[in-house]
Amino acid sequence: MKLIQASKIDMTHFAVIKMKSGDPVFHEGELIGLSLNTVKNIDLSKHVLMGWEVPLYSKIQILVEGEVFIRLPKSWKLPKYQKLYANKNRKITWRRTEFKVGKTLLEQNEDGYCKIRVDIR
Q1: What is the pLDDT along the chain (121 residues), one digit of tens a residue?
Q2: FRET partner for 42 with CA separation of 20 to 30 A, picked from 58, 78, 86, 98?
Q3: How many folded domains does the chain comprise?
Q4: Which residues contact 65 (CB under 8 A, 6 or more apart)?
């Protein structure tokens, strides 16, 4: 995932599970945003983390409102302005759920990348 523009970022939550950058983040059953960090369960004395990676139980950046480029399954072939949602498995989907993430701003390209507008309120 590549951040293009962030209107609102939340940094008050700690990562208690492993996740990838761009995964939906839930707190007490509610969607609070998309993770801007990759959370890894590693020994810091033996490994070096990249700038966007954080160890487990660290504070993470959560995108609540903004624009990102994100890679989605190639087979979806999403059109422009397709609404996107998050499911209980912490994955983004085009199938309607109670957790609205945002919508696509461009058609999904042949490699699976798509520009989306995130608006979680």
Answers
A1: 888 888 888 888 898 899 999 999 998 889 999 999 999 888 777 777 777 788 888 899 999 999 999 999 999 999 999 999 999 899 999 999 999 999 999 999 999 999 999 999 7
A2: 86
A3: 1
A4: 6, 7, 8, 118, 119, 120, 121
Domain range for 94 = 2-119
Which residue has tokens 């499911």? Answer: 87
Residue 95, CA distances (Å) to 2, 47, 58 in order: 23, 38, 31
86: three-class secondary structure by DSSP? strand
pTM of the model: 0.85
Query: How far is it, in rounded angstroms, from Cα 121 to Cα 110?
Result: 31
Structure token digits, residue 7: 């209107």
Q: What's the CA gap between 14 and 112, in Å, rounded?
A: 30
- Give the rounded distance of the alpha carbon of 20 from its chain centre: 8
